Task: inverse folding
């Protein structure tokens, strides 16, 4: 940033003595935000400049993707403020059409990763159904084992009963005295 020429009207010139150094990525973000707010001034109802509208929209989309990568709350708040100002100024346009090259309303930057969210939910649903299927299969196997065990016990009881009924038992009377 120190190698950049300072414009006397910019925030960077005012703050240059108070800042030791800003890394290049922060400087580029601030420069794009500055450009975004400067071009918004040209989007007043009396100007109806579609070229600036397209530039604003492209710049906004680029900054939104940066904010999602950085996950910085203050950066998201600044973009939210810009979005609100943009939406109020564009609503006053009379010559805006859907073919202007940019939307009439900027939407929030918080819902743009919907594909990741839907993919994650899809994976979790399939994982849970797979686990449920495995548990159901184990429960089914345990149920079959219990039935087989019950049949085995019944068979043992039946065979013992038959054996006991068919055999002549001698009672020893001398043990009774």
Result:
């Amino acid at each position: 940033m120190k190698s950049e020429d300072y414009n006397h009207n910019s925030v960077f010139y005012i703050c240059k003595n108070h800042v030791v150094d800003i890394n290049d990525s922060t400087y580029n973000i601030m420069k794009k935000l500055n450009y975004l707010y400067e071009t918004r001034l040209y989007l007043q109802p009396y100007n109806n400049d579609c070229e600036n509208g397209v530039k604003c929209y492209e710049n906004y989309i680029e900054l939104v993707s940066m904010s999602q990568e950085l996950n910085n709350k203050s950066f998201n708040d600044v973009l939210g403020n810009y979005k609100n100002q943009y939406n109020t100024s564009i609503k006053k346009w009379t010559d805006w059409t859907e073919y202007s090259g940019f939307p009439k309303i900027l939407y929030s930057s918080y819902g743009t990763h919907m594909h990741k969210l839907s993919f994650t939910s899809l994976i979790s649903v399939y994982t849970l159904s797979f686990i449920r299927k495995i548990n159901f299969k184990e429960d089914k196997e345990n149920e079959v084992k219990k039935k087989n065990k019950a049949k085995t016990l019944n068979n043992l009881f039946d065979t013992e009963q038959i054996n006991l009924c068919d055999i002549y038992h001698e009672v020893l009377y001398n043990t009774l005295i």
